[in-house]
Amino acid sequence: MRATLMYGAGDVRVEQVPDPVIERPTDALVRITASCVCGSDLWPYASMKPEGGPTLMGHEFIGVVEDAGPEVTTLARGDLVVAPFAVSDGTCVFCREGLHTSCADPQAGFWTNASGQAEAIRVPLADGTLVKLPVEADSALVPSLLTLADVFGTGHHAALTGGVSPRTRVTVIGDGAVGLLAVLAARRLGAERIILMGRHKARTDLGREFGATDVVSARGEEGIEAVRELTGGHGTHVVVEAVGTMPAYRQALGVVRPGGVISRVGIPQYEDAPIGFGSLFLRNIRLAGGPAPVRAYIEELMPDILNGSIEPGKVFDTTIGLDAVPVAYQDMAARKSLKVLVKP
Ligand SMILES: [Zn+2]
Fold first, then answer.
1. Can you tell me the mean pLDDT for 105-127?
2. Where, residue-wise, is CATH 3.90.180.10 in the chain?
3. Three-state SS string across the chain, please?
4. What's the 229 CA to ligand 1 centre distance in angstroms?
5. pLDDT band (50, 70, 90) for residue 33
6. CATH 3.30.300.20 fits 2-150+294-343, yes or no
7. How far is the CA of 13 from the centre of ligand 1 (A)?
8. For labeling, which of 15, 52, 132, 270 is most exposed (least CB within 10 Å)?
9. pTM of the predicted model as reported, rounded to 2 decimal places
């Protein structure tokens, strides 16, 4: 089959690789019908050393079950399924608490060297990992349902762990797909005001459509000042940090209200950050967020997509075939595309 391989920074190729096969009785084989490139794929695209490659890429997909091992009980050949960006058994102590990203099963974890941007993939722990979709593979809802694999679930996780409620005001830092869907999620949870910090007009326009009440395009001190002006000098109760860099964290510190929460869903590109007396402690500020257990949220978020009340799939501004995936990486890294849908 054809699959996407990353050989190193800036070097993504679509090549022939061996077809995946059932290796364990709990595996399923899925023929991929819709996939995408993630903002988090851009981190290795920027920095991966050639010694680390080549590695198969892709961790967000929808597809049709082609075959399943003898211990798979909830799925049958022909089922259309969505896969979260982490494999989980659905039965361990952490999964039962809704923290599927910490699943204790030895086969669980984030997809690594997995062929999500390919024609087919082997899915471990298929009963726990995959969720059946009640539509056909060519449904117009597929782009929105594909966001359940990662970006919408991640935006929801940011809003939820930040404590968004009808009484809260929210700042979202970052106008990538996750930031924009954190806006949609905050709106869905009833936030009374949502300030989106982002610099790309086409994206912040979509953010307004998703529910942002204000847009601040300035960054750093100037951006902090602008948010404070909009909030009577106090900042907001919740700040979603959907970038992952130190400047974004510092911006979050600057716009969070005393007693508030900074909820981080951008993968932190740092280990050391201010958390001491002057930064967090004095103002009773809490840190939340982490890799979203999106598997826990799929059943809750899907009905609003199926009934048409939300359309998170609007974050896909480009659709391509599998052979064009290297271009998708280039265009997303150059911010020419917001998020690229791949039809293998
Ligand atoms: Zn588990």
1. 94
2. 2-150+294-343
3. CEEEEEEECCEEEEEECCCCCCCCCCCEEEEEEEEECCHHHHHHHHHCCHHHCCEECCCCEEEEEEEECCCCCCCCCCCEEEECCEECCCCCHHHHCCCHHHCCCCCCEECCCCCCCECEEEECCHHHHCEECCCCCCCCCHHHHHHHHCHHHHHHHHHHHHCCCCCCEEEEECCCHHHHHHHHHHHHCCCCEEEEECCCHHHHHHHHHHCCCEEECCCHHHHHHHHHHHCCCCCEEEEEECCCCHHHHHHHHHHEEEEEEEEECCCCCCCCCCCCCCCCHHHCCEEEECCCCHHHCHHHHHHHHHCCCCCHHHHCCEEEEHHHHHHHHHHHHCCCCCCEEEEC
4. 45
5. very high
6. no
7. 33
8. 270
9. 0.95
